[in-house]
Structure formats: structure tokens, C-alpha cells
Write a structure and sequence with these properties.
Structural class: alpha/beta
Shape: globular
CATH architecture of the largest domain: 3-Layer(aba) Sandwich
Largest sheet: 10 strands, mixed
Distance between the termini: 43 Å
Strand content: 5-15%
Length: 862
């Protein structure tokens, strides 16, 4: 097998070494006991007999391959074989999955319910095999059968359930909850077409549907018997080919739950991620259909099913915003109805629920403002269905709900028009207005005469169009508000919602984000994982703090060599995969310099591009300049309505083309924009990266999690003092980072006087780079297309301060290149970074949530 073929999946090229990477784990008492009497009986029903796992997997696989497809096996391709393998693995974990839920029902522990509009889980087969400790066994079984394992793995699409860091964080969190044996459940939406599939045409982003559910998803289990009815205050109809609203005629939607297993490491606990799909009630206007009004007869069904078609509909129109609003309520209404049903089932006496126990039995975490409607929805349930008084219902609601804030950007703190509530959710509007009335009275009593404070704290934003402030609603209606990095939590408390924090100081805390080391190191980077395990054992897989033991090994030549070899292997695998899948050739002996994240002005991909233009100019002016060859990787999606972000993608692609076409720099600089950024792409690229760019405008990035993944995988960070990068640099020592630029305080303090023109006038390299861009050097056949960049950087005031930080960025870049000339010193800093990444495990984050917010305890499954 050629290396290119082996490397089509980044981690699987080292499949034969996975036993060692996992510390020699095999099936045994700490994993899943497949050959239990119950499993043997089940397998006997299948006609398999009580046999060892290898035989059992063969039997399950062959039966699924034959009976699920009802076809000649010789005609079946990789997709059918993937489904057979995945369903066989699901058969193995199903017993544990059922037993997990039975244990929770029997012991009735406090359960955590994590509500999120995104769960960017990536591919499930490889992760489930890893967490079940079955990877080496299945690899051997497939090798014995001559199965093309890599082709099988490539058949699974990334689940289209998220976009960026918010969704990936949620996925890491539910992994950690299962690994730590916490009784927990994730709630989200089952987006049929994801956010969109990104392709590049003439350098521009083009959005296409991501039909990830075109083929059956072998992991999900539909539960129609547990459907939920969601009531709205109006109806919809098709008028002249467009959707119209019928005021005053209530309607209903159905939420159909689809469950996916969340396998904890070792397979001891299998929790559930429940995703809701929208459907219409069982109504069909047969007369209209028979008369030829096909669209009218199906309008209700089409309207309902459209609700969960796409993640983040284009919000540049009121229709797109309205769809998003209904999506958020649909998630909240379905999830709360479901968890309340579960609460009533296990906490009732003679059919009468003991509502006073709700905070002791349920912790509901709101992942950002999207599920903030949980506040009035839980109040509605307690007031209207449980018939509790206001004060009791309010106390129970606040004690049960907790809110995580993920942004300081005003535009991301959602505000919904008050008339939408009046139209769609009139009862919720009544509840919100009453909450606001009582809140206003409390503020007036505590701060008499401070009308400005009353206005700022209010749930209602007055103006030409009155709006509900969803962040304020979430803060007031919950007992806990946390930020996700130390600087973010501090700015949230002292700037963004300062007045609310002064009213409820005991509610505010920090929980710095983390990532799961199982997927992001053990699975994604098997060569480095094996080197670590060989050095300190495998305890780090579930206790990342163990990596601290690597620090003395920074002085060990043998370990430095092992780490360098692992990085070179990861770079070669990535280069081979990229060439085989896209035809793009990159040199693994160049510095791999990466920035992969959602495209946004504050994340400053444009600043990175300016750095590249300056380096390009230096080489054009001085071809003999000594500079290590470099490959700059960019990846990320721009929101469909975010025109400037799309311009930035276009510029990056044109920059790549101009550099490739210039013989003066060919082989010394290369820019690659990787389309369709996903978890699977990140799993390949992050282990291969030498340099991680975390260059957001200070005070704008809440935390970041890609920064943690890069650090864990041995990339050195060049970055600003923002988000969790500050804490990462503190853990490893700033001398092991390349920090630069303005601080958050300096950014805020310079707003009144900052002028980007000063940098243009006084910094020759800045002026030369901008002049080259605006001369159409990178747009010779499309003159003027980058004029919006002039508006952003110069005439518009450079709000995100690209030019203010460019010179400092270049100075940090020079320090980085100087260090790279000393391979031993570079390796030492790499090892110190990896050894210092233990704090940034999602296990640590979840332990803090469980102890300090949820008061949730492990519930081991026997």
C-alpha cells in the first residue's frame, strides 16, 4: 500500500500501532465485557453463538452486510460496508447504552441536560471504536477479511450539526461527561443540511447544501413514541408561492427525537445526545390535493419540516431571522418537555410530581443565548401546567437553569423583536414582561434615581423597534452565569453586563474551556500519543495533568527526537492526504503555519494575510534574503450574508494564486486555503502544524479551543493576549510563546484617538503591502474587487486594529523564525507546550461545572 493511500485518513495510517498508543489496552474488566451471558443470549438469537469478540464482530458484520442490503455481497461497495461495521459497533454498545439509562432510572441521580444549538461531533465510527477500546481488535478483524479499512472510514460524513468552536466545545463536553460517568444528556437539533457545504469557485466561497443525511445514519435511533407537541400562536400558509402568516389561528409542530450514543472512554457509560427533527401533525388536506392544490395541501408539512433543514439560516432577511427564532424555541420546548416528562416519571408520589425536587434532580445548562427561551418556557410549564405560584415557580426556574456566555460582541448577544413574541409566543411575552416588571422594581429600590441603570438592566431594549435582550433574560433567569476564559469572564462582568453583575455578583464565575484529549491527541495524533505513553504511561488519556511529567524530558535528546519524528510523520501524512484528495502539493519540510477558524474580522485572518504580503514583498525586493520556507494554511467558513468575510476568503485565494505564479518566491512561500473546514480536516491538519495563529483583536475572543488543540499537538503559538491564549502562555511560560500586540485595555483605551492612517504614513512595510493590494496586483483580471479592504483598513477606521498590531506581529514572526533555526531549542519549547496543556482538558472544565454549578455526581453503571 502506498503512503498516499495509507494517509487518506490521518490517524489510520498508524492503526497497527494503536495498541501501544493506548497503553496496551485490550478488552477486559475495564472495558466492555462483550461475552457476557446476556450478550451471548442475544448473539445466539442472531444465530452467532457464544463466541469471542473477533468471531462475534465477524458474525454481526456479515449479518448486517447481508440482511440490511439484501444483495449479493460481491456487489456491495465501501458505503454498505461502512454501514455494516458501524451497525455492528452499535450492536456492541447498545447493551451498555440501555443499561446506562436503566441505571439512571433506578438510582434517580441529579441529571445534567446540556442545551446547545450546535454539536460538532465529527465522525463517530473512529471515535466510538477508540472509546470502546475496540480499535485494535476491529482493525485486526478487518485486516483478516481483507477489508479496505480506509475506504470504509471515508464513507462516513462529518455530522452536519455545527459550525465552529461553540459546537465543537459542546461535543467535547458531552464526551467528558460520559467519560467521567456523569448522568447527562445533550439536546440539539437534527439539521438535515448542516450549515452549508463550502466550495471555492474563482476564489469565492460558494454555499451548497451539505446533505450529510442522504444515506442512512447508522448511529441514530428514532424515538417517535416520545415525540413532543410544540404550540405556536399563529399558523402558516402558502400564498402566491410565498409563506404567509395567519394571525390568531394557533398551530402545532411535532418534535421527533433522534438519539445518538455518546460513549465514554472505556465504554463504561454510554450517554445520549438527543436531536429534534421538526414534523407536522398527522393532517393532510385530501380534498385540496385531489383538486390539484398540491402545494396548499402540503403547506403545513413543508413549513414544519423546513424548520430543521439548515443550521443558521441567512439572517440578512426578516424571514431568515424569524426561522432562527422559531428554531430556538423549538429546541427549548422539545427539550424541556422531554426532561420534565423524565422528572415526573421518577419524582412523583401517586402521580403527583414533587416540583420542589426539580433543582435537586435536573441541572439545565444553556450553551450561549440561543436556548435563553428556556427561562419563560420553564416558567410557563411550572405556572400553567404544574399550577405553582409565581414566587415558587421563579425560584425553581432560577435554581435549575445555568447560562454560559460565549461572546462579548454586541451583535452576537441576541435580541428578538417584541412583536414576534406577541405573534408566535404570546404567553411567553406575558411572562417576560412580568419578569421585567419585577426586575425593574428591584433595580429602582436598590438604586433609586438611577434611570440609566434601569434601562441597561431591563429585558426590553427600547427604540424604533422594541426588542427582548436574550442575554439579560438568561442572566436574570438562572442561578449561574459563567464566562469561558479568565479575561472573557472579567470583561463580561466589568464591561458587557456590568450592571447585572453588580446586582447578582454571586451568580458570575469563570470556567475556562477545554478539549477532549481522546479525540484531539490519542485519536488524531497516534505517533505523538505513542511517544507520550512510552515515556509516562497512559494515565494522561483520562487525566491530562499527567502530561506535566513530560517537562523534564525536554532535556532528553531521545524524547526530543521522538517528538520531532512524530511531527514529521504527521506532516507527511497530511501532505500525502492533501495531494491525493485535492491535487494540491505541499512540502512537509516547510514550516506549516496555520490559522483555521470561522472567518470573521475580529479573528483577523486579514492581519495574517497582511503578514504574508509583507514577507512576499521582502523576498521580491531581496531574493537572497535568508528565510525558512513556509506554507501558510487557512480554513474556515464565512456566514452566507457576511460579505466582507467572503471578500477575505477571495483575497486569500488570490494571494495564493499570485504567490504560486511568481517564480521569485516559488518554493519559499505558499498559501493554501482549504475549503470545507470540518472536524475531520482539523484532525489531520492540527497534528501536522508547526505554528498556530491565535491573533484575534484583544478583548474579542471569548476563549478559543483550536488554540488548545494546537498546543496539545506540539504547535507553537504566535498570538495576542486574548481568550484562553493568555492562560496557555501562563501555564507554559511566555518565553515558550510568541506573544504580541495591544492588550484588551489598550484596545479599549485607544478607541477615541486611533487612526490607521498613522501606520500607513509611518510604517514603510505596512504602506508597501497596502499599496500592492490596492494596485490590483492580486486582482489583475478583477480590478477594484478589494476596495472593501481599503474601506475596512483605512477609510473605515480599522475597527479591529489590524494595522495597529501588524508591526508587532512581524517582530514576533521574526523571533519565531530565529528559533526555528535551532531544532533542539524548538523541540524543547514544543515539549514544554505539550506538557503544559493538561489544564485545557474538557475533563477539567466539566469537573468544575459539576462541582461548582451543577452539584452533579458520577453515577457509575454496574
Amino acid at each position: 500500500m502506498t503512503r498516499a493511500r495509507q494517509s487518506q485518513v490521518g490517524w489510520s495510517e498508524a492503526a497497527a500501532d494503536m495498541d501501544a498508543a493506548q497503553g496496551g489496552h485490550a478488552m477486559g474488566s475495564d472495558g466492555i465485557a462483550v461475552d457476557t451471558p446476556d450478550m451471548s443470549k442475544l448473539l445466539q438469537q442472531y444465530g452467532c453463538g457464544p463466541i469471542r469478540f473477533t468471531g462475534t464482530s465477524d458474525a454481526l458484520y456479515e449479518r448486517h452486510l447481508m440482511f440490511d442490503n439484501v444483495a449479493d455481497l460481491s456487489t456491495l461497495g465501501p458505503r454498505e460496508r461502512f454501514e455494516a461495521v458501524a451497525r455492528s459497533v452499535r450492536d456492541v454498545l447498545s447493551q451498555r447504552w440501555v443499561l446506562t439509562e436503566q441505571t439512571y432510572a433506578r438510582q434517580n441521580p441529579k441529571r445534567v441536560y446540556y442545551l446547545s444549538m450546535e454539536f460538532l461531533v465529527g465522525r463517530s465510527l473512529t471515535n466510538n471504536l477508540l472509546n470502546l477500546l475496540l480499535d485494535p481488535v476491529v482493525k485486526r478483524a478487518t485486516a483478516d477479511k481483507g477489508l479496505d479499512w480506509i475506504a470504509v472510514l471515508e464513507q462516513e460524513p462529518d455530522a452536519g450539526l455545527g459550525n465552529g468552536g461553540l459546537g465543537r466545545l459542546a461535543a467535547c463536553f458531552i464526551d467528558s461527561m460520559a467519560t467521567m460517568q456523569l448522568p447527562a444528556m445533550g439536546y440539539g437539533l437534527r439539521y438535515e443540511y448542516g450549515i452549508f457545504k463550502q466550495t471555492i469557485r474563482d476564489g469565492w466561497q460558494v454555499e451548497q447544501p451539505d446533505n450529510w443525511l442522504r444515506r442512512p445514519d447508522p448511529w441514530e435511533v428514532v424515538r417517535p413514541e416520545e415525540k413532543v407537541e410544540v404550540k405556536l400562536g399563529c399558523s402558516f400558509e402558502v400564498r402566491g408561492g410565498t409563506l404567509g402568516v395567519i394571525v390568531g389561528r394557533p398551530s402545532s409542530l411535532l418534535g421527533i427525537p433522534y438519539d445518538r450514543p455518546v460513549v465514554g472512554y472505556g465504554g463504561k457509560t454510554v450517554n445520549t445526545l438527543r436531536l429534534w427533527a421538526a414534523a407536522a401533525p398527522d393532517t393532510f388536506d385530501f380534498q385540496a390535493f385531489s383538486a390539484g392544490d398540491f402545494v396548499g395541501a402540503l403547506a403545513e408539512r413543508l413549513t414544519a419540516e423546513s424548520l430543521t433543514r439548515v443550521l443558521y439560516p441567512d439572517d440578512s432577511t426578516s424571514m431568515g431571522q424569524g426561522l432562527r427564532f422559531v428554531q430556538e424555541y423549538f429546541l427549548v420546548a422539545c427539550s424541556l418537555a422531554d426532561l420534565v416528562r423524565r422528572f415526573r416519571l421518577h419524582n412523583s408520589d401517586q402521580g403527583i410530581p414533587n416540583w420542589s425536587k426539580l433543582p435537586a434532580k435536573a441541572a439545565i445548562q444553556l450553551n450561549d443565548t440561543h436556548p435563553s427561551l428556556a427561562v419563560p418556557e420553564l416558567m410557563r410549564l411550572l405556572l400553567d401546567e404544574a399550577r405553582l405560584g409565581w414566587d415558587e415557580a421563579w425560584n425553581l426556574t432560577r435554581q435549575t437553569l445555568a447560562y454560559t456566555n460565549h461572546t462579548l460582541l454586541p451583535e452576537a448577544l441576541e435580541k428578538w423583536p417584541l412583536p414576534w413574541f406577541a405573534l408566535l409566543l404570546p404567553r411567553h411575552l406575558e411572562i417576560i414582561l412580568e419578569i421585567d416588571r419585577r426586575l425593574t422594581e428591584e433595580v429602582q429600590a436598590r438604586f433609586p434615581g438611577d434611570d440609566g441603570r434601569v434601562e441597561r438592566v431591563s429585558l426590553i431594549e427600547e427604540g424604533a423597534e422594541r426588542k427582548i435582550r436574550m442575554a439579560n433574560l438568561a442572566i436574570v433567569g438562572s442561578h449561574s452565569t459563567n464566562g469561558v476564559a479568565a479575561i472573557h469572564s472579567d470583561l463580561l462582568r466589568t464591561v458587557t453586563v456590568k450592571d447585572l453583575a453588580e446586582m447578582f455578583p454571586e451568580s458570575f464565575s469563570n470556567k475556562t474551556n477545554g478539549v477532549t484529549p481522546r479525540r484531539w491527541l490519542l485519536l488524531a495524533n497516534p505517533h505523538l500519543a505513542r511517544s507520550i505513553t512510552n515515556a509516562i504511561g497512559d494515565g494522561w488519556v483520562t487525566d491530562l495533568g499527567e502530561l506535566e511529567r513530560l517537562k523534564p524530558l525536554a532535556e532528553d535528546k531521545g524524547f526530543r527526537d521522538a517528538v520531532r519524528t512524530a511531527k514529521r510523520e504527521a506532516k507527511s501524512r497530511f501532505a500525502d492526504w492533501l495531494q491525493s484528495t485535492s491535487g494540491v502539493t505541499v512540502d512537509p519540510d516547510t514550516i506549516f503555519d496555520c490559522q483555521i477558524k470561522r472567518i470573521h474580522e475580529y479573528k483577523r485572518q486579514l492581519l495574517n494575510a497582511l503578514r504574508v504580503v509583507v514577507l512576499y514583498n521582502r523576498l521580491r525586493e531581496n531574493p537572497d534574503l535568508e528565510m525558512a520556507p513556509r506554507t501558510f494554511f487557512f480554513a474556515g467558513k464565512a456566514a452566507p450574508a457576511y460579505h466582507l468575510a467572503k471578500i477575505i476568503i477571495k483575497f486569500l485565494n488570490n494571494l495564493a494564486g499570485a504567490i504560486d505564479g511568481d517564480p521569485a518566491v516559488r518554493g519559499r512561500l505558499k498559501v493554501v486555503f482549504l475549503p470545507e473546514y470540518s472536524v475531520s480536516l482539523a484532525e489531520r491538519l492540527i497534528p501536522a502544524s508547526d505554528v498556530s495563529n491565535q491573533i484575534s483583536t484583544a478583548g474579542y475572543e471569548a476563549s478559543g479551543t483550536s488554540n488548545m488543540k494546537f498546543m496539545m499537538n506540539g504547535a507553537l503559538t504566535i498570538g495576542t493576549r486574548d481568550g484562553a491564549t493568555i492562560e496557555m502562555a501562563e501555564a507554559a511560560g511566555e518565553d515558550n510563546f510568541f506573544m504580541f500586540g495591544l492588550t484588551a485595555e489598550q484596545v479599549a483605551g485607544s478607541r477615541s484617538w486611533y487612526s490607521p492612517h498613522w501606520h500607513y504614513d509611518n510604517e514603510p512595510e505596512t504602506r508597501a503591502a497596502l499599496d500592492l493590494i490596492f494596485s490590483d496586483h492580486f486582482s489583475r483580471f478583477e480590478p477594484g474587487i478589494f476596495e472593501p479592504l481599503r474601506q475596512t483598513l483605512l477609510t473605515g477606521g480599522d475597527h479591529y486594529m489590524h494595522l495597529a498590531d501588524l508591526k508587532a506581529y512581524l517582530e514576533a514572526d521574526n523571533r519565531l523564525l530565529e528559533l526555528y533555526r535551532d531544532p533542539d531549542e524548538w523541540a524543547r519549547k514544543v515539549i514544554v507546550n505539550v506538557a503544559s496543556s493538561g489544564k485545557f482538558s474538557s475533563d477539567r472544565t466539566i469537573a468544575e461545572y459539576a462541582a461548582e454549578i451543577w452539584d452533579a455526581k458520577p453515577c457509575p453503571v454496574p
